[in-house]
Structures are given as structure tokens and as C-alpha cells.
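quick one, 428 residues, struct below
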Amino acid sequence: MSHKTIKVDYLARVEGEGGLLVKIKNSSVTDVKFNIFEPPRFFEALLRGRHFSEAPDITARICGICPVAYQMSACHAMEDAFGVKIDGPLRSLRRLLYCGEWIESHALHIYLLHTPDFLAYEDALAMAKDHPELVKNGLRLKKIGNDLMTLVGGREIHPINVKVGGFYKSPTRAELLSIVEALQWAVDVSVETVRFVSTLSFPDFERDYEFVALRHPSEYPLNEGRIVSNKGLDIPVKDYDAHFLEEHVEHSNALHSIRKEHGPYVVGPLARLNLNFDRLSARAMKAAEEAQLKLPCNNPFKSIIARAVELVYACEEALRIIADYKEPDRPSVEVVPRAGTGYGCTEAPRGILIHRYRVNQSGIILDAKIVPPTSQNQKSIEQDLREFVPPRTGLSRKDLTWQCEQAVRNYDPCISCATHFVKLEIEP
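---
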């Protein structure tokens, strides 16, 4: 067959709008364009001239799925600029809030967005007819994550309790203990989730990726660490601009990120697990081993297993933090602005999220840069399709389309975050 034409008007089960163009001729891929046509949102421009204290609440609006990630990276960047260090119970509360976001985001992706691909259902509603318990467990896990975000952050969507320097109000120990029973259930179900996703059928596909993630001396990365890769990178967050570059491509409203002199790279659960397996909790590590997830893992379709393992970890880590929690003397530390530039990098559910701010002596933002995970994964998504499609051009139009969509959803792309997909065509 010399050519195929496949058209999908809207790619479902991703956040945002965009398109994908794959050109095939004589079983070879001649062009791939991950075309994000969702309009730019200009958040970086919106931040200029605003007071530093507004950054966490403004940037949270970039995404309704991972607002905590934006708040945390913003807070860390501002605190870096002002020489502020958060530790003790306040640091633990930030980590606990992040656990809530990981739980709700990972549960959403695993159960409602990605599993239907592997079980050949159009969506979670269709899947629920045959597998009601899967959907019920996914929804309950997501609710537990949302409830945890409400306890710490004030509400589940765009939390209102986060500020530079800590929180507006710290929860009581009794308030946190109210969610322990639910989290204990979540740990058990998360372990079962790892077992379940490990039985799925995965396409035979691997690439030699450069995985990039945070690495902390003693913790599985959430809020802090150095930026490392499996290709020798090991830098402090403040050196990000010296090693990475964002570039505009004509076919997309979202910038594409590359590592200078190296090219595309991958961030997210699979990158974190490959680089930080030894930092997992004992039960999460055991779940991965029982799932026979062999590391390093270079099959992007197995990212669903990595997410499930992280789901176990996030639930366990939340329980650990609550068990050790001592109410802080005050909900925040004093923050005195000064002129300077600050960097923040935290691990959003989909990978590292970079914030850089330049502020004046009054704390007014002069310049802002935000690099979301999806922007960093875009070139790898395109490269995956360049190599994934050629051996499969003999498939029917329907099956090839399905597998291309699934390959994109491996990354759980948040297109709204990246525009600072859905149309798929494969043509001669």
C-alpha cells in the first residue's frame, strides 16, 4: 500500500485542543506535526507588573488538573529570589498537598483516559458497562485525591490556601486524620491497580530516550531536587536555562523544548521511576517488582504502570506525612521582597514544571517564564510516531488510527498547559 489517509476530527481523552498530522508514503513516515491550535493564553505576559504574592493564584488557573504544581513551582521560584527556605511542618504540608494532586491526576488518567485504549473501548462510559468496578475505583481514588487537596489547599480546584512562604491557614491534626481511613483503602486499591495494568497488552516499541526528572538525596521527587537525566545531566534548578531551550515551530502554538546539543527528552512518571526507583516506598517498590516492570523501561506504553506505581507511593506518602504531622506554630514564614531572579522546579503529575521570575525590590514581577511538562514532551511525541508508525502501515485505517491516538495518550498531554489535539490525518 502506497499511502493511507486517516482523519480524526477530535482526539478524545486529552486536556486541550490540537491536531496531529502524519504523512506516510510507501510505508515510510515523511512528516509528523503535533499541531496545537488552542490559542496562546499569555500567562507569562499577564504576570508582568503583578505583585509576587499573586503568582501562585494566577498560575494555578493555567490548569484545573494540576493547579498545585503551578502554585508550588511559583512559590519555590519566588522564595528562591527572596532567599526564603521552607522546612518543618510547612514543607511537609506542601508535599501532602502535592500527593493529593498526584492521586487525583494519576487516577483520572489511568482509569478514565488510558485504560479504555488498552481494553478497546471508545471511552470510560463504554468501559463501565463491562467493567463497572474499574470505573468506580478510579472515581473514588480521584475523589480521595480531591478531598486531600481540599483539606490542605482549601478547595479541590485551584486551591486558595497556598501562598509564598507557606499557607494562609494550616490544617489541624484532627482534620488530617479524617482522611486516613480513605487513604488506607486507596493504598490497597492502588496496589491492585499496579497488578491490573501490568496484565494489559503493550505494543512492542522502545526508543533510546533521555529521561529527565528531579532527584532528591532522600525522597522520591515532588517539590525539590536537582535536575538529572540518564544521559549524564546533573544540575541545580537555577542552571536550567544554560542546558535547555524552548523553540517555536510553525505548526504549533506551543513552544517545543529541547536539551541543548542533545535534542528531545522525556519527563513524567516513566522518567521519574527510571531515575528514582530507589527512592520509592517499600510497598510501591514491591508493587513494581511484582508487576515485573524491568528498569530501565523504554516502552512509553508502560508509562501506565509507572503512574500506577506512583499512585501507590503518593497514597503511602500522604499517610506517612499525616502520621508524623505536628501543627506548625504559624501557617507561613515572613517573606521580604528583594530584587533578583528566582527559579522553581517541581514534579507535576506529567513531569518537571519550571518557573523563573525576575522581580524588583518592591516584589513586582518584571519577567516570567513557565515551561510545562507537555511542552517538554512534544518533540518526543512526534519522534515516537515517526518510529512507531512505519512497521504498522499494514494495519487497517481504524487500527492504525487507534494506536496513534494511544501513543499520544501515553504522555497524558495537557495541551491547555502547553499553549502559552483533535485532528489526526495520515495522507500521501
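Residues 88-118 form the longest helix (31 residues).
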